[in-house]
Design a protein that fits this description.
mainly alpha
Length: 143
């Protein structure tokens, strides 16, 4: 019995750890994540060597979606310093939204929202509270 379970575990580990995207899947992900590539999604799919039904079938595969998400993390992590530079450049130019965002990201500023009721007054809340006591704690209701 233990041999069967060990064999099953090895098989599961192999299938999980050995998956890697085919070359055409790597191409489509590169095409989709390239911000300078202005082609339509259909054109990118075709140029990657896929058909749309095959592409959308892969989009339902958790392994492929995980691969896409890892690639997104790589691309976006590589751009963090440039984005910060652009934000700081906008702050230096006096752009209020950028200044506000900068302080929010640094934890210096938190936007406060005030919610008021009709005419600027307090909010009216109607609530019902039900209390349930166990049978042994209830008083005699027939007295």
């Amino acid at each position: 019995m233990e041999k069967k379970q060990a064999k099953k575990r090895r098989k599961q580990q192999k299938t999980v750890s050995t998956w890697s995207p085919r070359p055409e899947l790597i191409r489509i992900v590169d095409f989709l994540l390239n911000p300078d590539d202005r082609r339509s999604k259909a054109e990118k799919i075709k140029d990657a060597g896929l058909t749309e039904p095959v592409f959308y079938r892969w989009m339902k595969d958790e392994r492929f979606v995980d691969y896409i998400n890892k690639q997104i993390d790589k691309y976006t992590n590589a751009e963090v310093s440039e984005v910060w530079k652009a934000l700081i450049r906008n702050c230096r130019m006096g752009k209020e939204q950028s200044i506000k965002l900068f302080f929010e990201l640094k934890g210096v500023y938190k936007q406060k929202h005030e919610i008021t009721g009709e005419g600027g007054g307090p909010i009216k809340v109607d609530a019902t509270v039900n209390f349930y006591l166990p049978d042994n704690q209830r008083g005699d209701t027939n007295a």
